């Protein structure tokens, strides 16, 4: 053992070397956690990016319309009407599947676009009201419910009971996605997480109507819609729970 004040030959302190002291690398579990967080943040960033981009584009397109007599409620009513018209055309697929499915998809997309533009018009024209937001939210559920009910009718007519059940599950999941967000925001929390929001559901339904006549089963899109909707519901429940735990840790009194 070397005397006090001396050190064994060949051993140098880290401060006397050209490199800093070695650090322990994170374990495999920590690396997986960091990777998982990075991927989650990336998904959120992608969704937030195209959501913000769509809103900016809608706001720019509504600048001229904001100076006219067209009201946000008129756009909302027009959007609902187009979606209900699309729902009325879907059961006619037994006459001409290509014509009526594609026409229904066009009307559904157009009605959904008007649903985006009504909010942009309300903001641009300074005519946004709590009642208008309420009507806009209800109209979304009406439009989507009618279209999915029409698709369920097509499956029921062909005897596909499994697809009918998934249609019902998709409707319930879609409604719960919006309900979970509304309840989260009501208590001051963020509730817009997940990839099964309104825009993604419109894309899935429209893609199903467009591709079904060319040989891609419409059932696949309904299965995807139902699964993603319920996964989003679970995501939002877990997100709210996590936010509440954080607020409790900061002294938030849960009611």
How big a fraction of the residues is strand?
Answer: under 5%
What class would the helix/strand composition place it in? mainly alpha
Q: What sequence of helices (H) and strands (E) makes up the elements?
A: HHHHHHH
Shape: flat
Count of strand segments? 0
Name given to the CATH homologous superfamily: CDP-alcohol phosphotransferase transmembrane (TM) domain
The overall pLDDT average reads 81
Helix residue percentage:
over 70%
Query: Count the helices. How many?
Result: 7
Annotated CATH topology? Four Helix Bundle (Hemerythrin (Met), subunit A)
> Which oligomerization state do the chains in this entry correspond to?
single chain
CATH class: Mainly Alpha
Q: Residue ranges: pLDDT <50 for 5 or more in a row?
A: 1-37
Indicate the radius of gyration in whole angstroms.
27 Å
Question: What's the number of domains?
Answer: 1
The largest sheet, given as strand count, sense and whether it forms a barrel, is: none
CATH architecture verdict: Up-down Bundle
Distance between the termini: 65 Å
How do the helices and strands line up, and which of them pair or pack?
Elements: H1 28-61, H2 72-89, H3 97-124, H4 130-157, H5 161-186, H6 198-211, H7 218-249
């Amino acid at each position: 053992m070397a005397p006090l004040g001396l050190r064994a030959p060949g051993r140098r302190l880290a401060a006397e070397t050209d490199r800093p002291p070695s650090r322990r690398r994170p374990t495999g579990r920590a690396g997986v956690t960091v990777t998982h967080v990075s991927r989650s943040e990336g998904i959120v960033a992608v969704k937030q990016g195209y959501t913000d981009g769509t809103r900016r584009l809608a706001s720019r397109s509504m600048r001229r319309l904001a100076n006219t007599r067209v009201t946000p409620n008129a756009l909302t009513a027009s959007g609902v009407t187009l979606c209900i018209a699309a729902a009325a055309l879907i059961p006619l697929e037994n006459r001409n599947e290509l014509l009526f499915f594609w026409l229904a998809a066009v009307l559904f997309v157009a009605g959904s676009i008007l649903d985006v533009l009504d909010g942009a018009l309300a903001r641009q024209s300074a005519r946004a009201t709590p009642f208008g937001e309420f009507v806009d939210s209800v109209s979304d559920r009406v439009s989507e419910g009618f279209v999915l009910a029409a698709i369920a009718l097509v499956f029921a007519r062909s005897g596909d009971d499994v697809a009918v059940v998934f249609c019902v599950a998709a409707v319930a999941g879609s409604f719960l996605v919006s309900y979970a967000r509304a309840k989260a925001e009501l208590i001051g929390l963020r509730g817009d997480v997940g990839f099964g929001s309104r825009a993604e559901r419109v894309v899935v339904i429209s893609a199903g109507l467009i591709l079904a006549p060319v040989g891609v089963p419409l059932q696949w899109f309904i299965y995807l819609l139902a699964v993603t909707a319920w996964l989003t519901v679970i995501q939002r429940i877990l997100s709210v729970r996590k936010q509440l735990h954080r607020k409790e840790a900061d002294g938030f009194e849960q009611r």
